[in-house]
């Protein structure tokens, strides 16, 4: 048995349930969905597995404690009483980040300074040391206040989990990899279903689908800050990486296609797919979306068409959304999943979505419009 801990997988608003499902699929049962985060009971090994496998989460934090704090005194004393020295070694670097929403203690810089002081105080007593050089591994602390409840956590991921390591070339407005993965999961795609992204840009949606289709852990190509922590046994990381490489499926053929009218971004998409190791799973085609066709009777179009963010572009994208409605209707047994910030998208597309979900693409409020086609006949 390894030590019981609580982990928090942070999520973009609207994606908490998707992240929670992924955590359950990893085998963790005690999972609580909250605003912007999913809290779950785990062990130290789960830090390795969660970072390697979670496709839709932003990052994984280790929860150190949670308490009510409406005064700086309460924040200081309660923080000092937490078991910091069971987690943080004496040589750790431990900067403190902060955020405060709807709370009495709203000065974030003051909260950060108080937490820093309280952690130092707790370390002084336990390590019997006055000065900490902070030259060792990074334990980035966060104090997050939400309605006067302070949650103290340590980041285990390092760079956000969307940074898989395959995107070597950027297109103009690439989708975050974890949002692309969430779109595919929300579309209930599986590797036996044909998938086309007619506006693939950097190739994020096709690449994420190929990784899912082959059951390749999204974090396989990168490192995590907690890999340098002395309190996580190196064997845990080794086992988790071995589990991930043994899980990848080789003998499956995927039908995934990415189209884009811009040859430069398509070139980058190919390089990205190569870097992700899935170039043979995706057929990239330089063409306008209006050439879309498929011999497959059933499939899913999952895409993020242009938004028309620049002034003067709006009319153009509205025309494009109307044309999408006409062209896609020819694939009348397919399902369509479209991410757009346009509030009149359905009107322009000419069809009411079966389902829609409010999401965020960075700071942009978007809707994920889902148009379900008929279910394929069961064999
Ligand atoms: C919002 S970006 C898609 C970003 C993409 N999901 C990614 O992760 O990089 C929209 C893409 O649509 C492409 N595009 C614009 N008009 C198009 C058209 N008529 N046919 C196909 N692609 C088009 C642009 O070149 C751009 O790459």
How would you describe this protein?
With 379 residues, the protein is an alpha/beta fold. It folds into two domains: 152 residues, VC0802-like, CATH 3.30.2130.30; 180 residues, 3-Layer(aba) Sandwich (Rossmann fold), CATH 3.40.50. Helix 2 runs parallel beside helix 8 and helix 3 runs parallel beside helix 5. The site of S-adenosylmethionine has 21 residues, from helix 7 and strand 9.
What is the strand and helix layout of this fold?
Elements lengths: L3 E7 L5 H10 L5 E4 L2 E7 H10 L5 E10 L3 H9 L3 H4 L8 E6 L6 H20 L13 E6 L2 E7 L21 H10 L8 E3 L6 H10 L20 H14 L8 E5 L2 H14 L5 E5 L13 E4 L10 H15 L6 E6 L4 H5 L5 E7 L2 E8 L8
Parallel strand pairs: 5-6, 8-9, 8-11, 9-10, 11-12
Antiparallel strand pairs: 1-3, 1-4, 2-3, 4-7, 6-7, 12-14, 13-14
S-adenosylmethionine binds next to helix 7 and strand 9.
Cα distance, first to last residue?
A: 45 Å
**Which CATH top level class of the largest domain fits?**
Alpha Beta
Low-pLDDT ranges: none
Beta-strand share of residues: 15-25%
Q: Which whole number gives the mean pLDDT?
A: 95
Number of helices: 11
* Backbone CA Rg: 23 Å
Give the strand tally: 14
Proportion of helical residues: 25-40%
In CATH, the topology of the largest domain is named Rossmann fold
> Strand order, biggest sheet?
2-3-1-4-7-6-5
What is the CATH architecture term of the largest domain? 3-Layer(aba) Sandwich
Oligomer: single chain
Hetero groups in this structure are: S-adenosylmethionine
CATH superfamily of the largest domain: Vaccinia Virus protein VP39
Order of helices and strands: EHEEHEHHEHEEHEHHEHEEHEHEE
Main pleated-sheet profile: 7 strands, mixed
What is the count of structural domains?
Answer: 2
Structural class: alpha/beta
């Amino acid at each position: 048995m390894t030590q019981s801990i609580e982990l928090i997988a942070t999520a973009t608003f609207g994606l908490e349930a998707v992240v929670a499902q992924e955590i359950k699929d990893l085998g963790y049962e005690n999972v609580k969905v909250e605003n912007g985060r999913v809290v779950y009971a785990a062990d130290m090994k789960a830090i390795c597995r969660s970072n390697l496998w979670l496709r839709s989460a932003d990052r994984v934090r280790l929860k150190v404690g949670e308490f009510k704090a409406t005064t700086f005194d309460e924040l200081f004393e309660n923080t000092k009483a937490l078991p910091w020295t069971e987690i943080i070694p004496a040589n750790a670097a431990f900067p403190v980040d902060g955020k405060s929403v709807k709370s009495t203690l709203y000065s974030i810089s003051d909260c950060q300074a108080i937490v820093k002081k309280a952690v130092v105080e707790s370390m002084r007593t336990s390590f019997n040391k006055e000065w900490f050089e902070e030259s060792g591994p990074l334990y980035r602390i966060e104090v997050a206040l939400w309605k006067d409840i302070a949650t103290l956590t340590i980041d285990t991921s390092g760079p956000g989990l969307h940074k898989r390591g395959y995107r070597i070339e950027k297109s103009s407005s690439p989708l975050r990899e974890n949002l692309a993965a969430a779109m595919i999961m929300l579309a209930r795609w599986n590797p036996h279903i044909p998938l086309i992204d007619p506006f693939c840009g950097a190739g994020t949606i096709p690449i994420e689908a190929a990784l899912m289709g082959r059951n390749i852990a999204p974090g396989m190509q990168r490192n995590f800050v907690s890999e340098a922590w002395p309190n996580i046994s190196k064997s845990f990381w080794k086992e988790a990486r071995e589990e991930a490489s043994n899980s990848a499926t080789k003998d499956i053929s995927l039908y995934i296609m990415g189209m884009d009218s811009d040859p430069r971004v398509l070139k980058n998409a190919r390089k990205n797919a190569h870097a992700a190791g899935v170039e043979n799973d995706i057929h990239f085609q330089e063409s306008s979306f209006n050439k879309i066709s498929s011999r497959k009777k059933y499939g899913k179009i999952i895409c993020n068409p242009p938004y028309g963010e620049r002034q003067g572009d709006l009319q153009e994208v509205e025309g494009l959304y109307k044309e999408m409605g006409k062209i896609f209707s020819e694939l009348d047994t397919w399902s369509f999943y479209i991410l757009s910030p346009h509030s009149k998208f359905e009107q322009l597309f000419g069809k009411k979505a079966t389902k829609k979900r409010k999401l965020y693409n960075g700071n942009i409020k978007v809707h994920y419009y889902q148009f379900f086609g008929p279910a394929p006949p069961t064999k």
